[in-house]
Design goal:
Elements: H1 2-20, E1 35-44, E2 49-62, E3 65-70, E4 77-84, E5 90-93, E6 100-102, E7 106-113, E8 116-123
Antiparallel strand pairs: 1-2, 1-8, 2-3, 3-4, 4-5, 5-6, 6-7, 7-8
């Protein structure tokens, strides 16, 4: 009886390890691109221009939308929706904020909205 319990215990442990190590989860589904990207950023409105080669953009997710928080006194972009484009790359969609491509290591942005323009060419 002890031998049977021991064998069943080992099978249960092996099954648990196999299930927990399943590899079918797409990395992009885990929001690997949420975080801070560094590189060139710029912002322009009708009155002023801000440019930095050592800027940063912090990406966060709230529900189904993403927010982009800039350093260097650049206004933030919030409420952006994305759709998958290829392997682990997402492209912004919807009205108002298009022109953002992001993956786990690269953020590229050219957004024009309400007379304002944001650009970013960043990595992490």
């Amino acid at each position: 009886m002890k031998k049977t319990v021991q064998i069943l215990s080992m099978l249960l442990i092996a099954l648990t390890v196999m299930v927990s190590c399943k590899k079918d989860t797409d990395p992009a589904d885990r929001d690997f691109f949420v975080g801070t990207y560094k590189g060139s950023v710029s912002y322009r409105n009708g009155e002023s221009t801000i440019t930095s080669t050592d800027g940063k953009v912090t990406v966060s997710k709230v529900g189904e939308t993403y927010n982009f928080y800039f350093g260097n006194n650049i206004p933030d972009i919030t409420g952006v929706k994305f759709e998958k484009s290829g392997d682990n790359t997402y492209v912004s969609v919807g009205s108002g904020v298009t022109g953002i491509t992001i993956d786990a290591s690269t953020l590229k942005m050219l957004v024009s909205k309400d007379g304002q323009t944001w650009t970013a060419n960043c990595t992490r």
